[in-house]
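Design job #97: recover the sequence.
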């Protein structure tokens, strides 16, 4: 990269609401990845973007520069069409676990390059690591071989995929600049485009447990994600989904695996089944396959792929999942119909019990979490259990109970419980 710019000038320009030129963006992202632009300078730039935004041309160039910071994967030699799903993150969001084997059982290759959790939203790898023996780190060759033979893989994204995003995401996390629509959009799409999937379905969440608290913001994020993907030649669409209450009944790691297996066995909570099938149908149609995901949940084909997928990565699908050393019930203090369960509060409770981490190097507890004993629409009486808390650290229970104070709301009747608000693109 030959062009040289003053990063202070670029920060001032963005801070004053001016557009960055394409070559300025290329230089900035490259110089930051190489350590020429310092973390404190990039923090100031992230804050300037947070307040001033990026227009479509800037966003597209910013995303392209993040992709160019690393290498791209090539799935074109696989015998099946590739389709991926990405969720913007939520509480109890274990959908990847039943979805990847389900869509693979329909004939697609599903590469789910996933991450670990930070803060109140869980990470798919943390959940899968509750399965005894399962390993997240695969080489590219192992991943390709598994995609060809099994059709689905859930594994850690290698360090070479959009390294600029790895650095920038860690920085945003500690500088209060995560919740910026262009920064989220470029972060997600740089990884997905570099990954090389031919189709992508996004699950853009809104509500208290999501990055986007309002439908208007979630719609804008979805629109920007879809246009970045489409412009890069990836068949991209998005489901706008509700994350005001936790998904399903289990929020944690091992307990979310158990709930996912229930779904693969043809049962499980209605909202998890609804969202899994909605995403699966969108993914299957994005790659032109003619298969019925609902039928593959019923006939056990999706479960067969799950078992193969777990075994291929050293896990034992029949092994007992870890059990927490301590548990405690949270009881209803009144009679009524449950009309709300605040996702953020439950995510925080689960995190305090040990299911999540505060710093990226912290360990997580496989058995910690919250199991909801009542869900929206249930009529409960005073003294009835609303939730069970699980942890290996007894003194974490008080903090979790505090987080849940006021999380359950009661009223005359429950509103609609459908998770899917809208479909954008596709
Ligand atoms: N997920 C990502 O990968 N990046 C973000 O910025 C937010 C959610």
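Job complete. Output follows.
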């Amino acid at each position: 990269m030959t062009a040289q710019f003053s990063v202070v000038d670029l920060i001032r320009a963005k801070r004053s609401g001016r557009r960055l030129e394409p070559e300025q963006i290329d230089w900035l992202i490259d110089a930051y990845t190489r350590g020429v632009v310092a973390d404190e300078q990039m923090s100031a730039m992230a804050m300037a973007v947070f307040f001033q935004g990026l227009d479509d041309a800037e966003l597209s160039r910013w995303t392209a520069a993040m992709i160019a910071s690393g290498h791209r994967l090539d799935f074109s030699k696989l015998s099946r069409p590739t389709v991926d799903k990405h969720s913007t993150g939520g509480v109890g969001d274990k959908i990847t676990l039943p979805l990847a084997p389900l869509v693979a059982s329909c004939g697609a290759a599903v590469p789910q390059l996933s991450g670990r959790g930070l803060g109140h939203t869980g990470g798919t790898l943390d959940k899968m690591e509750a399965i005894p023996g399962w390993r997240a780190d695969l080489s590219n060759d192992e991943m390709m071989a598994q995609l060809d033979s099994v059709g689905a893989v859930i594994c850690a994204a290698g360090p070479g995929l959009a390294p600029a995003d790895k650095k920038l995401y860690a920085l945003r996390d500690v500088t209060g600049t995560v919740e910026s629509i262009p920064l989220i959009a470029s972060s997600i799409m740089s990884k997905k485009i570099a990954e090389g999937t031919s189709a992508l379905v996004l699950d853009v969440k809104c509500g208290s447990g999501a990055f986007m608290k309002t439908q208007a913001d979630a719609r804008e994020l979805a629109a920007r994600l879809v246009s970045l993907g489409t412009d890069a030649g990836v068949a991209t669409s998005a489901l706008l989904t509700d994350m005001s209450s936790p998904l399903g009944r289990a929020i944690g790691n091992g307990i979310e695996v158990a709930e996912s297996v229930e779904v693969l066995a043809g049962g499980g909570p209605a909202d998890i089944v609804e969202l899994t099938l909605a995403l699966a149908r969108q993914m299957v149609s994005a790659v032109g396959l003619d298969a019925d995901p609902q039928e593959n949940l019923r006939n056990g084909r999706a479960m067969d792929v799950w078992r193969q997928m777990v075994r291929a990565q050293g896990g034992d699908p029949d092994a007992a999942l870890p059990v927490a050393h301590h548990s405690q019930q949270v009881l209803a203090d009144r009679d009524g119909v449950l009309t709300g369960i605040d996702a953020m509060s439950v995510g925080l409770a689960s995190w305090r019990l040990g299911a999540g981490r505060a710093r990226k190097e912290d360990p997580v507890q496989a058995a910690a979490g919250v199991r909801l004993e009542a869900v929206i629409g249930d009529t409960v009486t005073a003294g009835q259990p609303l939730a069970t808390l699980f942890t290996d650290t007894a003194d974490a229970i008080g903090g979790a109970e505090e987080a849940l104070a006021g999380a359950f709301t009661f009223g005359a009747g429950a509103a609609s419980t459908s998770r899917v608000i809208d479909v954008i693109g596709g």
